[in-house]
């Protein structure tokens, strides 16, 4: 169960337009229209079943949420549907597994409608104007942040999944056009090129390590 009492948070009301997906093809939020603005709402994937059962595009929904600093996002603690049913974040089911969607290699390009963020406000991708959801890890997203901003032109290549709620592409490459895409680092550390000067010097000049090591393997 979420540690925040949803009744302690103000409610934001809007009309649900579409669900958004994570890289596994799970619903992890939605876009709603509130006060003539697009509002991105994050919901944890374990809420998917209840959310998609009780709310749909065109419904008026109420969201009790926290707003991370520096991100145009509401991280939902509870969502109330048009029928008055309240869907609360009770935490994940320990036995829950990711859905077994078939992924395939896919390109996508277009204009960014909204930047997508994780629950703590970290940049995690973009929603294109054609409805394609592009997901990028938070470390990689910092490399191409300018391409994930609203109205930017974005092209990606990666693992695509089609679901009844739309398409998501987990980007492995990105750029301003398909002719200019380059691989993303995906937050991996730089490759090691052997020990540095200090490390090598320590092994070379250590007073006791060398002799003991040689005799032990004689």
Description:
This protein has 218 residues and is mostly beta strands. The chain is built from four helices and twelve strands. It has a five-stranded mixed barrel. It has a five-stranded mixed beta barrel with strand order 7-8-9-11-10. The radius of gyration is 23 Å and the shape is globular. The N and C termini lie far apart (61 Å). Mean pLDDT is 86; it is low at 196-218.
The Rg value, from CA coordinates, equals 23 Å
Query: What kind of sheet is the major sheet?
Result: 5 strands, mixed, barrel
Q: Count every beta strand, where a strand is a DSSP E run of 2 or more residues.
A: 12
> What is the helix fraction of residues, given as a range?
10-25%
State the secondary-structure class.
Answer: mainly beta
**Approximate shape:** globular
- Straight-line distance between termini: 61 Å
* DSSP strand content: 35-45%
Topology as a string of helices (H) and strands (E):
EEEHEEEEEEHEEEHH
- State the strand order across the main sheet: 1-2-3-5-4
Number of helical stretches of at least 4 residues: 4
Oligomer: single chain
Which spans of ≥5 residues are poorly predicted at pLDDT below 50?
Answer: 196-218
State mean pLDDT (0 to 100 scale): 86
